[in-house]
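Q: Structure for this?
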Amino acid sequence: MKFFRRNPIDLLFSAITGIASVSVVVLIIGIFIALIRESLPAIDRFGVINFILTVDWDPVAEVFGALSTLLGTAITTALSLAFAIPIAIGIAIFVTEISPNFLKGPIGTAIELLAAIPSIIYGMWGLFTLAPIMEEYIEPFLQSTIGKLPLIGLLFQGTPMGIDLLTASLILSIMIIPFTASVARDSFKLTPPIVKESAYAVGATKWEVVKDVVLPYSKLGVFGGVVLSLGRAIGETMAVAFVLGNNHEIPRSLFDAAATITVSLANEFTEADTDIYLSSLYYLALILFVLSFITLATAKFFLLKAEKRYHR
Amino acid sequence: MVKRATIGIFSVLFLLLMVLGVFAAETINGAGATFPYPVYAAWAWQYKKETGIRLNYQSIGSGGGVRQIINRTVDFGASDAPVKPEDLEKHKLYQFPAVIGGVVPVVNIKGVKPGQLRLDGITMCDIFLGKITSWSDKRIKDLNPGLKLPDKKITVVRRSDGSGTTAIFTTYLSEVCPEWKNKVGAGKAVRWPTGIGGKGNEGVANYVKRKKYSIGYVEFAYAKQNRLTYIKLKNRAGRFVEPNFSSFQAAAASGDFDPEKHFYLWLTNAPGDNAWPISGATFILLASEQKESNIKTVRFFDWAFSNGDEIAKKLVYVPLPESLKEKIRGYWKQRGIY
């Protein structure tokens, strides 16, 4: 009852903040309902399992399936995380433990600037600058070196075009590095100095301090940063829309054009002319929504579990 | 002091809203195709200067334009593909063409200048089907005696996004090539048998410019402004024509636009002697019962037909031929909106 005894301004303030918070929940539920409603015709026609396992994406014949886009999303996300995590953690270690003080400011600002660049600019840069470089130098080089190895070499088959999974993943990784790096940096900073100093006092080297003190202390925070980047990578649209080619086929090599859910939506939404076509695009969006939700929920679950263990 | 300032700001905002409200009465709202957006915007600017009436056009894509006019949320919709007469009747819509556009195949072959390479429909179809894979293929050589063609693999470049350009191009291929019709079909997005995808005209143009021995297709305006290496194409009359204003207008003039069918027509493979075979009109859709707003919209397009040709040409759009404009005016008159 304390709530009602406050003065009117306070009450109004509480009401406003309360409405603001509730509106987010209402909005999310509203979006979810709208997505389901719009995708009902496609769900009706193609089913759930069948839609997910079908490769065909043929607007003329009105046959739609999500497998190629799901695969594309999974591959680009995984690959970009694989590129980004080591670099981001390296940056964070350098900034907190190794770099001289006068460098910390500029490097930190540079990373934050990288995060502030709008994704469409990454997309244009990718198409006009990175793709030609990949096509002419990097991809032929990879083909003539790693591409000669057995098994792994299969990933580097085909004519390098610059518009492919590798280029898209590379751009994605550049985009998510700042997120991972700044979260990792902040959690490294939380390591109590006294613990580090004790380690140095007993003769530990820098490498040993990072490996045995800082990293174990902050692995939760780093994991949080990785999850954040994963969410960003799954949903990123404009940066990859230009450099992935929107090719609805199962990719056979990293040099193949492919499609992700977001790339298909960005490329096809405006001109989807038949109802079932539009509905199938909504269906893809619904799947993306559910995927992001599951990813975040799983991450939260593990984080909470780890936190509990940590505090005991 | 602060309070007074707040009141001041609010009253200014209020006044602004009132003024905007007055203007809103003099605004025509349209939405749809992205391709004609620059010319509609240029016409609207000039029209506002002359009459004070604003035209607000949102280029949300043809699909969205058709949906918006069906739901009656705009004064007119715009679509790059004609809507079928039976669908128009079902949703009680009127339709007429506004401006001509077209698609130009462009190539990047060392030593081949704009307008030098000659192709016909069936050969181009087989290139885009992936059946002809080399520039030195006998069928290409037979069409181009005297032109030195390298023994290099052809790279096909096509659109990755859904677009009216692709719709016109694939409609043409379906018309001249039965195998294309059966295997791929026509549409704004199709299942391409081969090639790499670029997003938008700029994506395709960028690829063709960079990738040696490639072929792609772009909007006429885009090819012209970027000086891409266009080809000569054999039309239905058996002549090799270049893509330019007169060949597009020849296509439009020879097309049988029928007011009875609400001008439903794909201009592809038009019969005229000098007609460029991959042309198409972009269309305006009206809701038949919105009489008052239709009169306003029609007045705008009537003004554009009379005064807008130069503006359109400057932006590399092909104005409708006079005969077609008269047909459209008759169509309006018949429906009491002109």
